[in-house]
Amino acid sequence: MSTLAQFNAALSGTGTGTDLGGGLQPVVVDYRGAYNNGDGTYAVGSVVLFDGLLYRRISNPGNPGYAPGGTDWQLFEPLIGSPAYDLWVQTSFDNVRPSNPLNDSIGVPSVNFYDRTLVDSSETTAIDWENTQLMSGGVYTLEWSSRTLVKLDGDGQPVLSFDWADGLLYGLNNSVSLDLVNRFARDNLSYLSIDWDGRTLSDTIGRPSISYGARHLQNTSGHTMVDWENATLSSGEVVRVDWSNGVLSDLDGFPMLNWGSGEVNDTLHDPTLNWSYRYLYKQWTTIASGKTAGNVMSNAQYLSLTTTGTYNPTAPANAGMVIYHQSASSALIASMTLELQGATSAINSVPVGGDISFTSRYGVTALNVTYGTGNTFVGTAVTTCAAGATITWRKVYSLGGSSLIARLT
Fold this sequence. Notes:
The protein is mainly beta. Among the domains are: 50 residues, no CATH class; 44 residues; 47 residues, no CATH class; 113 residues, Jelly Rolls, CATH 2.60.120. The chain is built from three helices and 40 strands. The relative contact order is 0.04.
């Protein structure tokens, strides 16, 4: 627009105002805000907000009690003037917005759609849909834009309780208790308790206690104590029980009992017993319980094939039991003398309470047993031994080189 006349012509229209320089200028609207039924100052031309609509007073000025909707008011339409007038009225209206356009039945604010809030009966914001929040006592408890739930701490301040955007649940000390994304749970001291991706359960200070992925139970040092995948029990780092291979081991991990091979080992890791082959190794010792303590022979003394005549078998010193077994002679023996004391002495080898036994495989028709000088035999005399029979004697007393021998069988 190059001339004042052209500008005035553009502003001319149905708007009202004063002509300054040949053009219409907008006048201030007498906007009074929300309608007050007891206000007696409304003049003709006053504009009020009532039930969400604008009304202009057209008659009966200064007389309270006549609410918009009657003949004293008409709807106010600001977009009826020149472009400049319309722009000014709209701007004025935007700068003077009412705060509570809807009230409940007793006049308490309920809905403020300008601020986009719902208000409770205490006139405290309950829902703020501008900020996507649910409120309690003026403090938000749910915010659906950030997908969080909060609770109030002891000071009335909001602290996170559930963040379903990040998959987090929070505990009493505002620390993460459950992480649904990383799939773990923590205790109230923030120590890891459950890691279900790593398949571990941890103790009160976060040390793994159960690994159900590896099938382990662990001690406080992190050593596997029970491995149910490999069927072992351990002490520290040493496997003590391996029931897959049938082994019991000592503190150093050396096998003491192997029930797969049927062996028992001593503390030097040498075998002492093999029950698969019925072997005794080294020298076994009895304890003083029922019989006098002594050694037990690890194998029997066998008689030679030519057993007719006199036989004086050897025996180890301090033997708890001496066993004589006739070898595989193929026929019944007519006669034989068995000397239990002679150049060697079974009687002197066993302690008091020790036994001496003789077994004949095919039998002896005439068996004569001698006990040596100074020893006394008590019981039924031995004169024969049937095939497969066993005769047993026991040393029941000894004093000054003399012993009392009793027949048991």
